[in-house]
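Instructor's aside before we start: the two examples that follow are unrelated to each other. I chose them only because their records fit on one page, so don't look for a connection. First example below.
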Amino acid sequence: MTDNGANQQDLGAEYDSVNQMEDEVRAGKNIIILKRQEWKDFKEEERAKEAERRRRQERKDDDDARDQKMQDFMQRILATQASTTSTSATTSTTSTTTPAQTTRLPQRQIKPFKGDILEWTPFWESFNAAIHSSSIAAVQKFDYLKQYLQGEAFLCVENLELNDTNYQKAIDELKQMYGKPEVLIEAHLHKLNTLQPVKDMSDISALRSLQLRLQSHINALQTLGVDKSTYAGLLGSNLIHLLPFKLQAKWTESASNKVTDIDGLIAFIIQQVEAAERLNRLREQVAKPSHPTQSKQPQATPATASQLSVGARPDPAPQNGKSFKQKTTA
């Protein structure tokens, strides 16, 4: 009996030891599973961070490339402008050495300059041809200049005393503020980027205005030495979206529908506008207003002198159908 009790105690102790070992194994398995999950989460977080880092680097590279392209574009424009300005300065020096033949100013209208940078070039060309290049005294030129300046532009010369020395100072200050080539180029490019779209095909005046404004800014940029090829692609893609949907569809169906072909695109717009204008003129000629003829109402027969002397009334005008009294009694 004593041996049996001892065996049972040993078996119980061994059973408890096995259960404890199993609990430890299960706890170890749970720790392993937990560590594996933590490792997976860590790797996923690392991959997400790496992907985000690559995206940021790609965006930064794109921004840097775009900035570099813009800098290269402006450098080419300024280099071209510097060459054009040097040639113009040589021509101007040669022309100024030739004495003027007359002191009589031509009779012409010069539009006052109020400070709009896009109006400086036409103003200066008119003022230079009419007054600045003449042989009158500088003080007289300065007097004319003050008369043609208004608004912000007049403030540049308002406090300068009217004398020969200050005239050249005023010209230099105005050219410094409004005549810088890079500022003019930027202003015209901004105007091209902010042209208003035409939504309705029937709005012919808006289409014609868009075409004229487009050509005006392109011509000004060419005068400043900026070739159309430097901005043709960007301008063409923007210009397409300024047209009504029907014109966009016609352009895509045309044989030469390249967005980089600015001349072809402008020619297409001109062709469509002229066709619409001709159609409107034909419609106006066909649809003339018609005036309906009005039927003449019969007039009453005037009474004779003898009838008037006895108190007779003139005969009433003949009426068609029954009289009002007859109609009411019927």
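Example two begins here.
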Amino acid sequence: MNSITPIPLRAAPDRVAYHRTELALILSLYGRMVAAGEWRDYGISSLKDVAVFSVFRRTAENPLYRIEKRPKLRTRQGQYAVIGTEGQVLKRGHDLKAVLRVLERKLIRAVD
């Protein structure tokens, strides 16, 4: 008798990640800031409770800004946040586009 033993599939660990539309908004801003000479590198982390898009002026430095997505905060202050170098929350909210405006203001100042 030939019996086939099914191989149990390991469930992928639950991780928070950015959706394609969210990344499009972030990368659009990133491209404009790179063109203005403000930002030079980025990193993306998908962790259990948070997805983080880190922005760097130089690769070897600490991030200038972190754009975080925390779905557990969706019903409270909002799942998106922009965090500065010192860990201060610059903007938090439910709408990513509105939260990113705090960084777009810096782009307007850089061009002037």
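The two ends are 79 Å apart (CA to CA).
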